[in-house]
Specification:
By secondary structure, this protein is α/β, with parallel strands linked by helices. The protein has three domains: about 1-90, Udp-n-acetylmuramoylalanyl-d-glutamate--2,6- Diaminopimelate Ligase, Chain: A, domain 1, CATH 3.40.1390.10; about 105-320, Mur-like, catalytic domain (UDP-N-acetylmuramoyl-L-alanine:D-glutamate ligase, 3-Layer(aba) Sandwich); about 330-480, Mur ligase, C-terminal domain (Protein-Tyrosine Phosphatase, Chain A, Alpha-Beta Complex), CATH 3.90.190. The protein has helices at about 10-15, 60-65, 90-105, 120-130, 150-155, 175-180, 205-210, 230-240, 290-305, 310-315, 350-360, 385-390, 390-400, 410-415, 430-440, 460-465, and strands at about 5-10, 20, 25-30, 30, 40-45, 70, 85-90, 110-115, 135-140, 160-165, 185-190, 220-225, 245-250, 260-265, 270-275, 280-285, 330-335, 335-345, 370-375, 405, 425, 445-450, 470. The protein is globular, with a radius of gyration of 23 Å.
Length: about 475
């Protein structure tokens, strides 16, 4: 049975300097912070969040099968005296301590990913590529913040061969403490773009914040950087100042160590011809868009730096599935036939919005059918917000988008600048916009939905799925291009 344990309870208690209460098991099979989805045998960490305090759900977690709960000393009195508990001064601090202990016991080769765009898709591609060559642990969803990173660390099995961590930020100073816990052998910065401008003086300040990832790179490790990005030299200098001797460039330029030689873009993926550390290779990538093709170079370079073999790594890229809200494709069953929905609703910034619009431009549509963009506000852009929203008009024109539906006060800046022939509809919120989109849809159309989390564009996706129940769209990526 001990072979199935993620942690022995004795090890956990020692790592967190925890006091014991109740009848504790010898070990736990996993770690959860959600009482609703906890599995039997897992430990429940009662973290205090922005909205709820996890201590309110300890009883529910134990009733749902939790083996024990990790709770704060000042909440102990309100819990049953016989409840199986590990008691600590601060639950989040205890989780960080357990994450650090997990990293100390791990022999895995570790890669950390940050960047303004493409963190999660790059992390998922690394998971897929490395899992084909050894037991691989990786962040779930976008667990990339002050609790997500230590939680992912603490969940890492002791026998993992590879581990992949995503690290995010929207303020300076957030990445460094997280990466010092992760201690990666390879650090990837996908790109630096003008996002979170509400909190930064400019793109150079964003680059400096992303460069914090170099602070935790293990001795002898490497940085993988986008040499097509304007901040490449700034990042390279920061990496070298941190003592990172090996800086690997990926991109389309001749100086790139992982170089894009050619790419054939298709609606559901790409055929990529690349040179990785001098080896030429052609592979299929099951994620659409030139930006995804470029990030696949970083994935392959990082995999090789971690000791993986190039050919099976490249072959694995054909099996990646886009995540929910990150390009997943759905077929909507309209009375007259099918329409394609591209769900990009998870989040948005100017760079990712332009990339998603370009992907919509690649979507095949039937004669007399339309490419339709359904766009919500991009947030945290500060005083540049109105101009950045207006500026999307060029990407829309380049992608030959036929109709645009806009949601929110910032998107009004784009709406007002569109020609009347492209204006599909405008509403202040996503709930009011969805009926306008539904009424306009025709069989054969391809529509893409995107916006920042705060604009709630996922509502549009969910409502359209309910109106026009369909199924996932599985395109023949392997046959796309040659």
């Amino acid at each position: 049975m001990s072979g199935d344990w993620l942690w022995q309870v004795d090890e956990m208690a020692a790592a967190m300097a925890a006091a014991r209460q109740g009848r504790l098991p010898a070990g736990i099979t996993g770690i959860s912070i959600d009482s609703r989805t906890i599995a039997s045998g897992e430990a429940y960490f009662a973290i205090k969040g922005d909205v709820h305090d996890g201590h309110e759900f300890v009883a529910a977690a134990l009733a749902n099968g939790a083996a024990l709960a990790v709770v704060a000393e000042d909440k102990r009195a309100g819990l049953p005296a016989d409840a199986p508990l590990l008691v600590v001064p601060d639950v989040l601090a205890a989780l960080r301590s357990l994450g650090i202990a997990a990293r100390a016991r791990s022999r895995a080769k570790v890669v950390a990913v940050t960047g303004s765009v493409g963190k999660t898709s790059t992390k998922e591609a690394l998971r897929t590529v490395l899992a084909a060559q050894g037991k691989t642990h990786a962040s779930v969803a976008s667990f990339n913040n002050h609790w997500g990173v230590p939680l992912t660390l603490a969940r890492c099995p002791a026998d993992a061969a590879y581990a992949v961590y995503e690290i995010g930020m929207n303020h300076a100073g957030e990445i460094e403490p997280l990466v010092r816990m992760v201690r990666p052998h390879v650090a990837i910065v996908t790109t630096v773009e003008p996002v979170h401008l509400e909190f930064f003086a400019g793109v150079e300040a964003i680059a400096d914040a992303k460069a914090e990832i170099f602070a935790g790179v293990e001795q002898g490790g490497a940085a993988v950087l986008n040499c097509d990005n304007s901040q490449f030299m700034r990042l390279r200098t920061k990496a070298e100042a941190r003592g990172i001797a090996r800086v690997v460039a990926f991109g389309s330029g001749e100086a790139a160590d992982a170089r894009l030689l050619d790419v054939a873009l298709h609606p559901a993926g790409s055929a990529v011809h690349a040179q990785i550390f001098g080896q030429e290779i052609t592979y299929k990538l099951a994620l659409p868009g030139r930006h995804m093709a470029l990030n696949s170079l970083a994935v392959l370079a990082a995999a090789m730096l971690l000791g993986a073999d190039l050919v099976p790594a490249a072959l694995a890229l054909a099996a990646i599935a886009p995540g929910s809200g990150r390009g997943a494709r759905l077929r909507l069953m309209l009375p007259q036939g099918e329409a394609t929905l591209i769900d990009e609703s998870y989040n948005a910034n100017p760079a990712s919005m332009a990339a998603a619009i370009a992907v919509l431009g690649q979507a095949g549509v039937a004669p007399r059918s339309r490419r339709i963009a359904v766009l919500g506000d991009m947030l945290e852009l500060g005083p540049t917000g109105p101009d950045l929203h207006r500026g999307l008009a060029d990407a829309i024109a380049a992608a030959r988008v036929d109709l645009v539906f806009c949601c929110g006060p910032l998107m009004r800046n784009l709406w007002d600048g569109l020609p009347s022939t492209r204006q599909g509809g405008y509403a202040e919120n996503s709930a009011a916009l969805e009926p306008l989109v539904a009424a306009a849809l025709r069989a054969g159309d391809a529509l893409m939905v995107k916006g920042s989390l705060g604009s709630r564009m996922k509502f549009v996706v969910t409502a359209l799925e309910k109106r026009f129940p369909g199924h996932a769209a599985f395109d023949d990526v392997a046959g796309a291009g040659g």
